[in-house]
């Protein structure tokens, strides 16, 4: 029955790994993935089992062009071969049929028979062994042990069958060893009562918890075990025959053992271990991989996986890499050693060779990797060559004594120095022979800061918030006049009043207007933590700087806290700012308006972020963690550098060159230099999903320019991932596009919809059709709701956009634009790569070009937010006692214009004059229904323009936890619409509410307030505004059921008793002009269908049907595909397709197809329909994309 449902892609926990012939093989669910170790790309994948996940690989006889594998998982095993042609995977073939055993398989082992043929020994979970002839697909024999107990792990040792040893970790926290080969063993078909079990040879004790893994290294003859008690124990084994000859059964019986190590290093349970000749690696529930030596020391800690566990571990044959697979679906390759890999070294700059012994360094900086700039307290300015260990005096001037600020321009080898008298000196520090200087008096007081905006523009800050933007060029060279640099003042900037009024960072950014005109702006950050936007003086204004407005166009006060902005940079058309609040924020300049898209805190404890670097599409964050300077990789979730320097309040400098990094800082009157390797020891083979269970998935609304389904997933790990499924070489691959962070607790529900108003103005950088945007709402723990704007773009059109506008930028070359092009060059390189479509069901391309996702955080709302802000509330609101642990169980959102259709005349008036109140619908552009764990159903509005949420109505009708809610719009042939809201609770009831009544009355109240506001500002529009209110009142009068209803007296139009307990899935579909079908799935494992008759805003029940045994566990997803077809999924890991047959007063439900999936703890499902194809995304502990055609049913 499952043949009609076709799995396309699975993303979930990686449960098995092996490295062979330069390939990394991983088991994810029932699928085998093959990655190329060098290219770091997926080459092939195949589904091996049905109803079982892959738990292990065992490599057989491997040739130059073939890898032979025994794959096992749960109670299934098979043999496959991977064919290689010029080191490329060309085919994966089943070499045997799938064997289904009567017990769980813990291990598989290739053994040689006396006739040199190979067979496979299987270790079973009840301390027994099966010998399987995989070529003839026959089980030869089964051998049992007298200790017939449950095992938590097993390991088989030996090459020949006659020398095979079974090592088992029992439920009694012991390791037992017994021989598999026994002359008295019987054929597997013999009656079990006549089989003689084998005695145990050795028992190892000491663990205080069950044993999860056992490994034996035959060369060093050591046995290692890991346990639930977080410990790792290693025994040294000694045989009479010595260590050079493989031991026989007799040798094993005479073996002696000694416990040599008992180690604790993991913070949680230890799952697995891999032994190598000189070290061993362990993984655990703390998502950490530890590398140990055999003296018990931790050599390295590999942290990068998200979530709770690393589930699988393997090592390369040359012992240069270990590979880990986590519960976050990622596969990571960790480097153990690298030829010539540098070690961390520290040394002090030999300042004692300078003549003045009483002098000391006051400021340090780095001009390049080999050059350190040192300003002494006496006013002497030195260059220090690190390699040659030589000093060169740049200048010595008492005017720079005791106080100076320096800032170096790395590209032009220029250094700007300011002093307490307001003097600026520009130094060309490239040539040691002829140093040319230029002194300019800028201010009446001291120079507070110097910032190079780019290699030709310098920002200087003086007293009282006075800032100057200077242009530095290489003008006419005249040695007689001792001039080398030309300095001109372009612009006077005034910083708003604050305690610390000087600029700490700045960059240029360009904005494209609606008329395709490019304007340039200056984004600055100050020591007070604020961000400002200034207009930038173009070439035509350079000689008339007084015509430029020196006040900021926008101010974001203390957006980075109170301690300052540390960097401002531009990348890919966006501005990034960092600060000493531990956040980095992304901004977008949209038609001359600077808008913050989002802000991220990288790491708890990393409260000082100094700079962002992008290297190989990896975001590196430089900052200070307590008294350590650290470099953190965001994409790899790993610390690359940690240098103890005392903190960031001292003078310091940092430079990265290839795989080396150099850090210089002042401490105790000395300049210290630290060299260390910045090479990442991690390579990501498969991208990261979520680290915890997925709570909800939603397909984004369709867009004409995006042909692939775009998916959003929300998780217990507080993050939201926007992703796409792309087709590459006939493989459906999942790729994340963006990660949305910010929720305080788990994200339980998502709602996606198009823009709320047809007349909404675009705030994007252009109005080109390739930008497809939508609004995403997310809700979860701590009663928190967030609104996001998502923009999905084809990078091919982005390339065309930049090509069109780059030439029309500033007259003077703009580094910001060049860096934007360079940043996107890697994304543009493969834009026109053709996608193969060799299979019939993949004829529709998932992705024509690479996709990019930009996201903007619009607003955050907490239920009962007025109480949090101590605003006045009526005593009637006292019955709403908000628990801070209230969870948002479900959200559904609909644009307002889809719920209430306005007269076309009013729409025209609104478009003709934006001040008219007929455009008020844009203020409340979305209506949300929110189900809360506190028993309340809330109706909220959200305005895209004001970015505010507002509570419209609240009801405690269910008096228990509300689990589900959704909107439904019933349409008639006369184009009348009747909107409803459905809510379901833990009592098993479904309430249907008249949404039009609630929204329209609120809209009238809002419009009346807005009319008063418009009247005050523009009396000419008074009549138009009042007409709009009258129109709304007339519309409401036509649709109201019973007069005016207060929020606390809201009653549903219909209440349905559907289930015995909670309802976890709900869907509704209009099946005729007067009828709608409601489907629900509950904790009672049943599916209930209600056929509703809808007349206006009234509902009545026509027919009901129930399938009491639809699933064997609670149903977590249901969807009505058509009036006669339905899809459901459950925690029982099945996806079922049902045929519906409506009778006069009943509905018959029959299963037509069923498919087992690899997702554990299934929590949600969403459906994407395209023509005759139905695509399902089922999620829980992982995510799976399935497809079926309606023609097949």
UniProtKB/TrEMBL annotation:
GO cellular component: cytoplasm
Domain of life of the native organism: Eukaryota
Any GO BP annotation: tRNA methylation
Subcellular location: Cytoplasm
UniProt lineage: Eukaryota, Metazoa, Spiralia, Lophotrochozoa, Mollusca
Family annotation (InterPro entries): Quino_amine_DH_bsu, tRNA_Anticodon_Mtase-Reg, WD40/YVTN_repeat-like_dom_sf, WD40_repeat_CS, WD40_repeat_dom_sf, WD40_rpt
Segments annotated as WD repeats: 204-238, 310-344
Keyword terms, alphabetized: Cytoplasm, Repeat, tRNA processing, WD repeat
Family annotation (Pfam families): WD40
Name listed for the protein in its UniProt record: tRNA (34-2'-O)-methyltransferase regulator WDR6
Similarity remark: Belongs to the WD repeat WDR6 family.
């Amino acid at each position: 029955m499952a043949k009609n449902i076709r799995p396309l892609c699975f993303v979930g926990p990686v449960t098995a790994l092996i490295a062979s012939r330069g390939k990394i093989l991983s088991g994810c669910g029932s699928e085998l993935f093959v990655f190329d170790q060098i290219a770091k790309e997926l080459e092939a994948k195949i589904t091996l089992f049905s109803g079982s996940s892959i738990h292990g690989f065992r490599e057989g006889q491997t040739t130059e062009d073939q890898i032979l594998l025994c794959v096992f998982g749960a109670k299934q095993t098979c043999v496959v071969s991977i064919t290689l042609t010029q080191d490329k995977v060309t085919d994966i073939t089943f070499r045997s049929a799938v064997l289904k055993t009567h017990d769980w398989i813990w291990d598989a082992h290739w053994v040689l028979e006396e006739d040199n043929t190979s067979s496979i020994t299987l270790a079973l979970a009840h301390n027994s062994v099966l010998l399987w002839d995989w070529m003839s697909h026959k089980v030869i024999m089964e051998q049992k042990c007298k200790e017939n107990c449950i095992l938590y792990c097993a390991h088989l040792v030996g090459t020949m069958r006659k020398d095979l040893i079974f090592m088992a970790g029992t439920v009694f926290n012991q390791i037992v060893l017994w021989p598999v080969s026994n002359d008295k063993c019987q054929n597997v078909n013999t009656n079990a009562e006549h089989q003689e079990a084998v005695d145990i040879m050795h028992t190892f004790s000491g663990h205080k918890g069950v044993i999860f893994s056992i490994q034996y290294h035959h060369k060093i003859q050591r046995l290692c075990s890991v346990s639930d008690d977080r410990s790792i124990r290693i025994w040294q084994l000694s045989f009479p025959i010595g260590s050079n000859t493989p031991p026989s059964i007799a040798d094993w019986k005479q073996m002696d053992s000694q416990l040599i190590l008992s180690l604790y290093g993991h913070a949680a349970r230890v799952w697995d271990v891999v032994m190598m000749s000189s070290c061993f690696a362990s993984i655990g529930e703390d998502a950490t991989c530890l590398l140990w030596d055999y003296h018990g020391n931790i050599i390295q800690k590999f942290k990068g996986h998200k979530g709770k566990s690393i589930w699988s571990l393997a090592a390369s044959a040359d012992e240069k890499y270990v590979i880990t697979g986590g519960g976050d679906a990622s596969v990571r390759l960790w480097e153990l050693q690298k030829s010539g890999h540098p070690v961390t070294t520290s040394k002090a700059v030999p300042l004692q060779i300078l003549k003045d012994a009483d002098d000391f360094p006051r400021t340090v900086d780095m001009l390049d990797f080999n050059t350190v700039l040192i300003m002494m307290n006496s006013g002497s300015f030195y260059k220090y060559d690190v390699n040659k260990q030589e000093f060169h005096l740049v200048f010595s001037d008492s005017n720079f004594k005791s106080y100076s600020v320096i800032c170096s321009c790395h590209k032009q080898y220029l250094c700007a120095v300011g002093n307490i008298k307001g003097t600026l000196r520009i130094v060309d520090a490239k040539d040691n022979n002829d140093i040319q200087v230029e002194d300019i008096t800028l201010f009446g007081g001291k120079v507070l800061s110097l910032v190079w905006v780019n290699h030709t523009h310098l920002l200087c800050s003086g007293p009282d918030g006075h800032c100057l933007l200077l242009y530095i060029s290489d003008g006419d060279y005249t040695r007689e006049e001792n001039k080398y640099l030309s300095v001109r003042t372009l612009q006077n900037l005034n910083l708003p009043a604050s305690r610390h009024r000087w600029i700490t960072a700045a960059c240029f950014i360009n904005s494209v207007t609606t008329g395709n005109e490019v304007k340039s702006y200056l984004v600055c950050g100050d020591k007070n933590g604020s961000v400002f936007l200034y207009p930038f003086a173009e070439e035509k204004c350079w000689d008339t700087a007084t015509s430029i407005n020196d006040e900021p166009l926008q101010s974001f006060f203390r957006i980075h806290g109170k301690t300052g902005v540390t960097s401002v940079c531009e990348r890919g058309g966006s501005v990034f700012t960092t600060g000493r609040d531990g956040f980095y924020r992304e901004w977008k300049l949209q038609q001359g308006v600077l808008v913050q898209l989002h802000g991220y805190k990288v790491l708890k404890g990393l409260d000082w972020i100094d700079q962002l670097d992008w290297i190989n599409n990896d975001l590196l964050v430089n900052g200070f963690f307590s008294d350590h300077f650290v470099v953190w990789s965001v994409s790899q979730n790993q610390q690359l550098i940690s240098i103890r320097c005392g903190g960031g309040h001292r003078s310091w400098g940092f430079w990265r060159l290839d795989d080396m990094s150099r850090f210089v800082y002042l401490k105790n009157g000395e300049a210290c230099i630290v060299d260390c390797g910045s090479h990442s020891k991690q390579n990501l083979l498969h991208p990261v999903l979520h680290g915890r269970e997925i709570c909800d998935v939603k397909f984004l609304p369709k867009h004409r320019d995006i042909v692939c389904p775009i998916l959003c997933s929300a998780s217990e790990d507080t993050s939201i991932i926007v992703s796409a499924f792309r087709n590459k070489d006939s493989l459906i691959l999942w790729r994340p596009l963006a990660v949305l962070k910010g929720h305080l607790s788990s994200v339980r529900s998502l709602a996606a919809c198009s823009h709320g108003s047809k007349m909404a103005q675009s705030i994007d950088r252009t109005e080109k059709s390739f930008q497809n945007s939508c609004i995403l709402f997310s809700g979860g723990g701590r009663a928190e709701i967030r609104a996001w704007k998502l923009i999905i773009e084809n990078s091919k059109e982005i390339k065309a956009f930049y090509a069109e506008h780059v030439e029309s930028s500033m007259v003077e070359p703009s580094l910001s634009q060049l860096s934007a092009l360079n940043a996107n060059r890697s994304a543009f390189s493969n834009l026109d790569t053709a996608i193969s479509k060799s299979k019939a069901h993949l004829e529709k391309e998932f992705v024509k070009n690479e996709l990019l996702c930009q996201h903007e955080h619009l607003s955050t709302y907490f239920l009962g937010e007025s109480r949090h802000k101590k605003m006045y509330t009526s005593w009637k609101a006292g019955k709403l006692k908000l628990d801070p642990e209230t969870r948002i169980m479900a959200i559904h959102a609909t644009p307002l214009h889809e719920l209430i259709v306005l007269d076309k005349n009013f729409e025209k008036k609104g478009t003709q004059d934006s001040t008219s109140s007929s455009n008020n619908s844009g203020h409340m552009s979305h209506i949300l229904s929110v189900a809360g764990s506190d028993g309340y159903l809330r109706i909220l509005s959200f305005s895209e323009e004001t970015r505010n949420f507002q509570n419209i109505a609240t009801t405690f009708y269910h008096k228990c936890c509300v689990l589900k809610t959704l909107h439904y719009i019933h349409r008639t042939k006369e184009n009348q619409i009747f909107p409803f809201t459905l809510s379901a609770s833990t009592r098993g009831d479904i309430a249907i509410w008249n949404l039009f009544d609630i929204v329209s009355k609120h809209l009238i109240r809002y419009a009346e307030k807005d009319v008063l506001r418009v009247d005050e500002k523009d009396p000419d529009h008074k009549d138009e505004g009042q007409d709009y209110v009258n129109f709304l009142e007339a519309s409401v009068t036509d649709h109201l059921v019973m007069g005016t209803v207060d929020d606390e007296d809201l009653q549903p139009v219909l209440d349905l008793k559907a289930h015995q307990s909670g309802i976890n899935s709900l869907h509704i579909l209009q099946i005729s002009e007067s009828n709608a079908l409601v489907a629900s799935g509950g904790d009672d494992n049943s599916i209930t269908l209600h056929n509703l008759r809808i007349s206006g805003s009234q509902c009545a029940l026509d027919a009901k049907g129930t399938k009491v045994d639809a699933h064997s566990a609670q149903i977590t997803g249901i969807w009505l595909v058509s009036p006669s077809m339905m899809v459901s999924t459950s925690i029982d890991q099945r996806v079922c397709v049902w045929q519906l047959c409506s009778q006069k007063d009943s509905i018959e439900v029959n299963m037509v197809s069923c498919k087992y999936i690899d997702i554990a703890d299934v929590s949600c499902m969403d459906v994407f329909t395209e023509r005759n194809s139905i695509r399902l995304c089922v999620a829980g502990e992982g995510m799976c994309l399935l497809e079926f055609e309606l023609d097949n049913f």
